[in-house]
Design a protein that fits this description.
Elements (H helix, E strand, L loop, with lengths): L2 H8 L2 H52 L2
């Protein structure tokens, strides 16, 4: 173990529990923010793909008229 682990383990149990809860809440918040970021990026990618499909279909339609 490193010196920080030894110091943490030397703390009273209730203090360690508080520290662990704070760390857990922070990690949950980080994961929720990352999930939101990924969902937004996913929607952006879908919109880009849909726009590309729309443009290609329009290109085909325009060339069928010729």
């Amino acid at each position: 173990m490193n010196k920080w682990s030894d110091k943490f383990n030397a703390l009273p149990r209730d203090i360690r529990d508080i520290g662990c809860m704070c760390q857990t809440e922070m990690r949950i918040n980080q994961l929720e923010m990352e999930k939101t970021r990924l969902i937004m990026r996913h929607h952006q990618s879908l919109n880009e793909i849909n726009e590309h499909i729309k443009n290609l279909k329009q290109w085909i339609k325009d060339h069928e008229k010729e």
